[in-house]
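User: Need the bound-state model for magnesium ion:
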Amino acid sequence: MQYLKTKKRIAILGSTGSIGTQALDVIRENPEVFEAEVLVGNSNASLLIQQALEFRPNAVVIADESKYQEVKSALLAYDIKVFAGEKSVEQIVEMESIDIVLAAIVGYAGLSSTLNAIRHKKNIALANKETLVVAGELVSRLALENGVNLYPVDSEHSAIFQCLAGEWENKIEKIILTASGGPFRGKDRAFLADVKKEQALKHPNWTMGAKITIDSASLMNKGLEVIEAKWLFHLQPSQIEVVVHPQSIVHSLVQFEDGSIKAQFGLPDMKLPIQYALAYPLRLKNTFPRFDFTKYPQLSFESPRPDVFQNLQLAYDALAKAGNMPCILNAANEVVVQAFLQDKIGFLRMSEIISDTLAKAPFIANPDYQDYISSDAEARRLAAALL
Ligand code: NAD
Ligand code: MG
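Assistant: Bound-state model below.
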């Protein structure tokens, strides 16, 4: 019992996704340190059941209520609580036995459960960047009020966090977020006009969920990360720079006031940032693949192309306007990414619709939670009408 008590009990929101399954790899690698306390998935019942049978969590939640019976009956013989529905996803994080919540649901859908976890004083390992894009001010304030730490899982932000270890007293001059450039790096607009989702889904370095893979191809992912970085590290937008680094080995850099730059290197493998967020401040020994310089004789860096990829500038503009604008940017982006994945619009149309939605949606300078909910809904309506 004493031994068990020392394990960190993790609630994985989005356990069936790309980050979620890699988080389970991390737990599998360190069974004496971590324990899966709660698993939450959207609708992939068979994978959620399989995970529950292997990790024997205290509880599982399936958001899609039509899958409740399937999950319930599969786990009947075990001491595992089963819940279903959106409300249960939000409420499960309140469980006393949870030490840390890994927020790995994709998109705006991850906001309410993360906010509730913060209100219940749970530390957060944050993969769901949309949470900070939509409601960065509110999330940061609640975290501060509740004494909650937000540990970044996003590889760039984890890199910055790792560079800042031992530097807490030192001011940041700027940070440099690296971007792979995605599958369309170096292409022009004429090429992008005709690309199909199959091409956009082929990321050169990372295997991720569909939404973030499209965001990476359109550079919206980097735009969202700029906003995420502002809130995580308390920076001005002018202190956040983006550089394209096609090899995805340097995960990001921090420049201090004396001009010195620290970078974090590693293979493109999310297991490391996930593990660092869960084990912070410890670095746990693991068997994950190691970096080899001879396989990467050249690391290169180039400027992003805002004339070709407009989303990055749209994100900086939304951040400059502040208020509910980043929330609107995010909502419009979720609508257009979905539409692109359903072959309803072309690749370049995505930025146009986001830009038009930002221009049309009513501005709220100091939004509260209800304002974020209504801004999200209104932006989705406006963007859908533009499809
Ligand atoms: P994914 O699509 O692979 O997985 C999403 C997970 O969320 C799934 O488990 C799904 O069942 C669950 N989910 C979706 N909607 C839900 C809902 N309404 N209620 C409950 N669960 C729901 O996505 P991913 O690539 O794992 O990304 C997850 C988050 O992490 C995103 O915000 C993404 O931006 C961020 N992130 C991912 C990576 C990566 O390498 N995959 C890297 C950095 C950041
Ligand atoms: Mg990232």
